[in-house]
Amino acid sequence: MDSHSYTAPSRVKALLVPLGNVSEVAFKNYVEKIKSSYEVRLVDVTPTENSLFNPQGFPQGRVIYDFQLSLNDQESIFLNDFEPFRKTFVVIGITDSSNISHNDLELLSKHYKSSITHSIIVFGDGDHNDMEHKQIFHQSNKINIETILCDITGLFLNDLASYLSSFQHITLRSPGTIGSNDRIKAIEPSKRKRISSGSSLSISMSDSNNPKLSLSSSAERRQSKVRGRQLKILGNLYLLAGKYNNALKELNDAVPLLRISNDYLWLGSTLESIGVCLVMLTFLGVPYQMPSSLNQILHTSMTIPTPSATPISTPRNSMVFNGGSSSTGTATTTTTTTTGNQSSVNSTDISRYTTPELINLISIKVIHYYEISQNDHEDYVPQLVFCESILRFVKFMCVVNIGGGFNQTTIDHIVRGKNIRPKYSNVIFDKMEIVKIANKILTFQLKTMDILSQAKIYTSLASVFGDLNLLRKRSFIIRTLFISLIPELSNNDQYNNNNGKKTHNLSELLDTILSIYGIGRSPESLILDSYSSRWVQLHKSILQLCIIICSKIQDYKKIVQFKSLLITRYSDSLTDNEQSKILNEIQNICKEQDYIQFNYFDPLILRGLEVLKPINPPKKQSNTIVSDQTTKADPFLYNPYAKPLVTDETYFVQDEFMEFQISVQNPFAFPLQINDVQIESFEILKNFFIIQPKSLSVLNVLVKPIKSGVLKISEIGLKIFDCQLQFFKISSNLKPEFFNKLKKTSKDLNVSILENYDENILQNKIEDKVITQELTLNVINSQPNIQLINEPEHIMLLEGGSQTINLKIKNNSPILANHLEFSVWDSTIEPLKNVLNNKGLPSNEVYEIEYFLFKNPLTIKTEIKELQPFEEKTLEVELNGKRGMNQVNLILDYGHKLQNQAFTRRMEIPIKIMVNPSTDLAGCDILPLVQNVDSKSGKVWSYINEKTSQTDKNGKNLIISDFALFLIDLRNVWNKTLNLDIKYDDFEINESIVPMETKRILIPIKRIQLDDDNLDIVPSLSKKQYILPKITKAEDQYIKEAFWYRKEILKKLSGNWKIGEITGSIEFRGVRLSQRMLTTLKTDKLNIKIDVKTESQDHPVQTKGLYKLIPIDEFFTINIKIHNNTSRSIKGVLRNIPMASNFGSIDRRLLFNGVLQQPLLNSIKPDETLEFKIGAIILEKGEYEWGVLIDELDSERSHIARDPLKIISV
């Protein structure tokens, strides 16, 4: 509670002390529980034996406790008889020990003799031996703390009656006659006049010469003084006991006695106590009669400003707040005369004024009497009393203004210390009035007071100016306080004890000053505070003064804390030399004082954390792939287009080194020395680094995970300089939400500023300010590690050739490698892929490129299924010469398979290879065969003659035109003679080609029959989706025919070359078929055969080579047979085309019977043969040719007889 609250004189001071072996944490918890029940209702208190303070006399009353943990009233003990509320009346021992007895209570009473009530509260549910003692209370689940405090209050009220009896036989003296020497210098009349004129409310401060108030003798005057002082003390004790009606009565009776005896000091204190009674009765809502003494004291005419309407503006009866009306009560009718904004009021009635106005009138009169008392050499007001009275008054005015009037919220704040929300909707007191009254304190010689009293007065005064939003005045007061503290501390040895109560209180004071000024904000932790405006230079000077003060009292821990706070929050206002100096001073103090440790200053030192991807990280294989591994028909097949079998997620291996990149900032002017780095679940290899001043550096830290699983890294431990190890969160960017919150005001912290700072730094509380980063790593169990023992040498091959090499691999780990998967990569893959990116390639060329793309240049002859720990095995590998290849990589994906799950790691074995060309297909052609040749002419004709003497699988006799001649031009591009062995179906031929020579090789092939109308599209080896080409239908048909007819040839065509013991295969995929070659290669869709017969059976037609010999002027018959080899019916027009050798007109040379062109009456069905005949006679000798053409009616196709009839007429 605020010690300078207006109702502070109504609170009972109670000291809470630990007893027994209660721990500090438990004691604090118990204290908080007791403090929560600081208000005790008299109706709940058991009636006392003494009727004076019996709670039944005023059950509405309250006893309000001000619980404290230390005695801080030693400097003002001489004021206890003058203002009893300063005295610590109650001492409560707190313990949780079951061994508490009456002896402990006696020790407590003996140690705190000045207190009147001593009691013990025992917390816990254990057994207690002395629970029957009326001053020892047991708090458990059955008895709550409120009940115990009610019982303690009953004891206090009984003891208070005994305490009061001690005043009956003693003379009450003023504080100045007891021990106070803080006499205020008498104020000159001119100054007093200025002070009095400081308020717009003017009251006649001089008492009139009223005969009724004068006494006949000095003895009567002295007797009135003694009686008045006793009534005043009784009223004060009633006020503490919560019997506010009795207190008001006694105080009212004391006023005229003190007034007629000119006892201005006690009169002023009595008036102030009356004001407190009025506020407390208003707080309780109890009707009360206006004290008649006020009408006498506040006599003559008064001029006051017309107040603004307030909720409480009725006579002093039961109050209804927030606009309610009061109940009717006795009030004297007044006569008023209103002039302008002021009212002239008759002195006989002041009941029409509101409570704040009465407090204002009373307080101004109190200040007046205190000033008059300064002329008395004995009964003068002490500085402390005067200053605190003014502070209570100005704080009352501030609270009423801030709370929007004298309402229930405002009263709760004044009495109970509850928080109040600023309204400023109904300002009663003028701001400058408050400032003028508060400035009176600055006219006093405060330096004569003890340092703690000075500090309290200055801090409260600064708080008042802060409430009035007078920041410069507040800063001036704080600066004045610090200036007065430094010499006082230097001359007072009692503050040099770091464990003393004085130091503790001074620390609280410094902390309060920082909080009031705004240094309590936490820009290192809160985004709102980091963007709040600050008076940097003034904050810096205040912190430096705090450092000086702590140096005077040798509080080294506070020195380190203040210096650390200065460099954390105000480093931008420090020069480079100042920063370095502060660091050196902190380090020197910590070296000299072993018990002190300091924390590093920058909570945002970590700006990022990245993990470098390992060179060969393990990857997770899917369950399907692992389970199907043993059932693959060809586990060595390499598909460059297949989707990766591993996920994109990176996995790390337990007990294997990895590398972190930690981004660290150093915003200071001195280099940082990082002596240790710690990351949970990781072993650090290197942990010493130097960070240059004002830089952002990246630390490469080699680490090793010591456990497996999903590891999350959200903070890293750093030991910087000689600081203790601190864990810092990884900060990335400032939170963007602060832009929406800038208009809000950050509240000052009520907790210790330094403790809050240490907590922010040590616990790295930065979540409210920045977006923190968390790195998640998947660490798997230890994995096998396979290495290559022998490096393969460079290899030279001829295209089509092969060579076998041996590779030794070893498992250099204690983990079984039971998942081994081989694949191959060669240097031709990327160029071929680049060629495939050309979107304009025809489908047959795409197929050809893909064929070479998937062609495997390497074969493993030995199968390895697993490698035992530290086992070594040999791989026998056969390399095949692939055109254009200069390197081939054998890829091994290995791992430890466990329950259909495997993490594989890849090992690549590069093999440098040079492939030289062996043969080159220079060209090819296909020629039709129309005439048999003698078998002696060569192996080719011997093969053809043999075949034409046979029948095909359908029993049809083969003729020469059923075959074609395939011409291949092969060139030897090597520097040695090549022996060739070429096969086509069952035909085989052997040839030798000398270096750089081209030889044509003849291969007889049977013409191929395919259904051209139903040819499939060209397939894709990469399983790509078919896209309709942007070419004509004829072009598309040609591509399909060229592909499928070529494929039929390559099925039967093969060849090998040999150079000594070296052998290899011949690559025939360079064969390309033109349209003419396709026409030659195909079997006829309509097989048209033309023959001739004469009418003379005695003279059959003779043959001479390819010609038929027919005499002139002799009739002959042209016989035409048409056979349908397709799967469809054909309907068309038959056209006979006779021609002479000289291409002249044939009309006069040949006569024919019928027509040369005629439609086919019936369509030719599949595998059906039709026969047509036409008669003719040749009139002139010469060479003739008879051709036949059939045009289909439903299409543009034409069929020409492959072998036209050749005739020589003789």
UniProtKB/TrEMBL annotation:
Compositional bias annotation for Low complexity: 196-208
Signal peptide: none
Primary location class: Golgi
Residue ranges occupied by any Trs120/TRAPPC9 fourth Ig-like domain in the UniProt entry: 1088-1208
Pfam families: Ig_TRAPPC9-Trs120_1st, Ig_TRAPPC9-Trs120_2nd, Ig_TRAPPC9-Trs120_3rd, Ig_TRAPPC9-Trs120_4th, TPR_TRAPPC9-Trs120, TRAPPC9-Trs120
Region (Disordered): 189-223, 323-347
Domain Trs120/TRAPPC9 first Ig-like: 616-781
Coiled-coil region: none
Subcellular localization(s) per the UniProt record: Golgi apparatus
Keywords (A to Z) from UniProt: Golgi apparatus
Domain (Trs120/TRAPPC9 third Ig-like) ranges: 920-1082
Domain Trs120/TRAPPC9 N-terminal: 4-293
Biased composition (Polar residues): 209-218
Name the UniProt record assigns to this protein: Transport protein particle
Organism: Wickerhamomyces ciferrii (strain ATCC 14091 / BCRC 22168 / CBS 111 / JCM 3599 / NBRC 0793 / NRRL Y-1031 F-60-10) (Yeast)
